[in-house]
Amino acid sequence: MTYESGKEKPSLVQLIARFRTSSDFLQYEAETNEVKYWISYIRTLVDMQTLQQSIMPIVKSNKWKTLEELKKEIPIENIILTIDTDVIKEKLLDGYILVSLTEYGLPSALIKATLNKARDVSLPEVEFSVVGPKEAFVESLESNINLIRKRINNENLRIFEMNVGDLSKTKLAVLYVEGICDEENVHTVIQRIKDIHFDQISDSSFISQMISDNHNSPFPQILDTERPDRVSSILAEGKVGIIVDGSPHVLVGPTTLVEFFSAFDDYFYNWINASFFRLVRLFAVTFSILVTPIYVATLTYHYELIPSDLLNTLISSRREVPLPPILEALFLELTIELLREAGARLPTKVGQTIGIVGGIVIGTASVEAGLTSNVLLIIVALSALASFTTPIYAMGNTIRMLRFPFLLFAEWLGLLGIVLCFCFLITHLLRLTSLGRPFLDPIYPPRTADMKDAIIRLPFSLLSKRPEHLRTNKPKRFSSAKAKKNKDIDE
């Protein structure tokens, strides 16, 4: 008899005793005409339909006398014969049925009957698009892998599964395309995941924080997406994906700053429209960060730079405001953040009401009460609106947070303070990396070839090469000469 490798351990009695303390663990004795056997399983992890229809009719029959014969009779592939109690513990917690010929006998048969409960594939909620596919990842690891397999129908797609979390034993899968992806990136990801020592891993965001290069940076260094089409496209570029069981978001790296401002919708539109939308997003993010600090700096230190006509408008709007510009701006910015958090935490219908009604009522009341000026109210509202143009939610949170350091520097040194804070920000971004790759690529270090799909997107016929900073094993995606538009035969 050949069994799964493992050393016999005398701890099965203690193992069963520990499981018996849980009310959903079942163990009972039964027998056929010739064989007495014991069945053990955790009821809440087992698919009862599989147990009653595919397993128990064979077990109760007289067709077997040994575990090897039972394995041949049951029409289920994942049947393990083992003498290793560690394997028994792991598989019982994974929804397997334990069949043994005595109560604590070894070897035992482990039959897979795992109950998989997951919601159906639905529409993307965070990265919704008007055109393009309407599928989003769900909380099932197998379902998410299936969504990617359908889009990358290639034998070179590699999936490396592992468990992480000392207590949760959360399953995750590392995906990459062999022959394209740089093996160094794969080894970096796997090694960093293996180095994680944490008891409970509940979501992919845990992994993102733990394998990031700089844990003290407010910028996300791993791309988080819920779109299978985006992950498939990025894997084809030569990057590495991480799917965590129980999370509807997939991590992809190494990534760059410009990717967080690139929506996947850009590839569904004409390149001229897509480039325009990207530039609008970049302008909106810059506007969102700087417009309120510039208002504070100008009114505090540099009011002589304001044109006289505009200055009269500002003076009339602030005539009855007792607060200095910095307190006025902080009051409105914090109010916007409170409304955002309240709208996000409350039920959907109530949250929408709070966001709309609360913004109108509080904004109007604060102006009428003389706490803020109507000019600043418009500026803060436009700033908040501009921050919503960021396609990736995690980067949107970073943009929201960055306004406050700029506000404080503007109050301290005026426009010079804004420039100083901007220098600190650029220095931080220059030093930041994603899985060891430059985070500001292709802006720094400058790579002209990668600029074709960075700030703007050029036609597909010009995107014949994969990003240089990934150092892929196959830099060329297709022949650029063949991609050129050919004339019709009658032209």
UniProtKB/TrEMBL annotation:
It holds the Pfam family GerA. Its main location: membrane. The chain crosses the membrane at residues 279-301, 375-394, 406-430. It is a multi-pass membrane protein. One of its GO terms (biological process) is spore germination. GO terms for cellular component: plasma membrane. It is found in: Cell membrane; Membrane. Belongs to the GerABKA family. This is Spore germination protein.
